[in-house]
Amino acid sequence: MSLIVQKYGGTSVGSLARIRHVADKVIAAKEAGHDVVVVVSAMSGDTDRLVDLAYGIAVEPCGREYAMLVSTGEQVSMSLLAMCLVEQGHQAVSMTGWQAGIFTDELSRKARITDVDNSNVNKQLANGNIVIVAGFQGIDEQGNITTLGRGGSDTTAVALAASLEADECQIYTDVDGVYTADPRVVPEARRLPQITFEEMLEMAGVGAKVLQKRAVEVAGKLKAPLRVLSSFEEGPGTLITFEESPMEKPVVSGIAFNRNEAKLTVVGVPDKPGIASKILAPIGLANIDVDMIIQNVSADGGTDFTFTVGREEYQQAHDILKAVAKEIGAKGVRGNQKIAKISLVGVGMRTNSGVAQKMFTILGAENINIQLVSTSEIKVTVVIDEKYMELGVRALHAGFELGVEPKEEFDPIKPNVASKNAASTATDEKLI
Ligand code: ASP
Ligand code: MG
Question: Which terminal residue of the chain has fewer beta carbons within 10 Å of its beta carbon, N or C?
Fold first, then answer.
């Protein structure tokens, strides 16, 4: 029997009418002969409302109670969907994260899934039920409810799909797939019929919001076959593949961008071993994620040490750095919140040099100054003034001809069952 895990995001279950529509899609999958497990997000706006309530009570709400509160959003949508299915004469049960065996570590706001005990879900499936699972939540060893970080329902779906060895994990959202760039910024952007995990990971990391980055990491690690598609219109969506297509290896597959980051520079740092760690250790201790790190020796022998952090953590990072700068004898701290990050992503970069050069030329022709650059094997990222983000993205999209359909279309690759099974035998491995 084939098994499909479907995940519906907040807008897809945003009203009773939308929930009825989702029920129709779930029934269609069931009637096509699949076992169906559905993971739902909270109705759109609900999680935001709950988070606001929490921050209305406390500046830093207690983690355990925060998770207790914000996890309730998903329990509303899951039970409404199950009710709707029952109403239409189908067998369905909803389950909270803990009922579905989603075990996590103890980070209440951003917990990681450590294990999935799928026995309850399997029992319900065997009884002929459609199983609806609350996304975004789990339970820690102490029995406390935890949440998986914003957008975490994607991760619930992927982890369940991997554990149940589902034939496909379908992520239904309000866009019909992964695009060469966000179509709201680039109208010529094209839906990609498929993209590799590595590319998706880089895209999600830089700000393509279709999938939570952690969900992609888990899918890649556990080889869960994943597809992103729209709950609003029919279509094949985008398949996230494990293998590169032998036919098409675009040098650049897509462009991701965001303005969620800020830049900090410690100026005139003494050029001595151990200094970088002195700067970054207290930042890490404060649980602030650092992204690009750039260090450069200046003419007078000192170095400038620059890195980016999430914009909401900018002030905290700035305060920490001011103290550190004094301690290590640096000249001072400079910061800029008005930056944007643009990345070109493509597996074809491995075998093609010159992408960065072409990127700089295109941005230069638009008079856009590049503040920072970093590269990986399949990605080039620049930081620019946020004012020019849209202009830069559009110029790059046009310059790399991403709106142009590649000549050879290929069949969407079927989920790779062999490699999926190989991966799922590695049972001693933690999920994330
Ligand atoms: N409801 C949660 C959020 O809004 C989780 C999710 O939608 O994936 O972040
Ligand atoms: Mg989402």
Answer: N
Atom 6 in ligand 1: residue holding the nearest Cα:
151
Q: Please, what is the end-to-end C-alpha distance for the chain in angstroms?
A: 27
How many angstroms does the Cα of residue 324 sit away from the middle of ligand 2? 37
What span, in angstroms and rounded, lies between the C-alpha atoms of 324 and 85? Answer: 58
Give the range of the structural domain holding residue 343, as residue numbers without chain letter: 245-432
DSSP SS3 for 216: helix
With a cut of 70, say whether residue 245 has pLDDT above it: no
Task: Determine how β-strand 35-40 pairs with β-strand 303-310.
Answer: unpaired
DSSP classification of residue 355: H
Q: What is the mean pLDDT of residues 71-83?
A: 98
The Cα 106–Cα 175 span in angstroms is: 33
Single out the residue in 150, 174, 198 at which a domain terminates: 174
Q: Are the C-beta atoms of residues 153 and 74 closer than 8 Å to each other?
A: yes
Which among 81, 105, 113 has a CA at the least distance from the CA of 94? 81
The response to whether residue 137 sits with its C-beta less than 6 Å from ligand 1 reads no
92 or 425, greater pLDDT? 92
Give the pTM.
0.81
Domain end marker among 124, 143, 174: 174
Among 1-10, 357-366, 421-430, which is the least confidently predicted range?
421-430
- Ligand 1, closest atom to CA 156? 8
Residue 172, amino acid: Y
pLDDT band at 427 (very low <50, low <70, confident <90, very high): very low
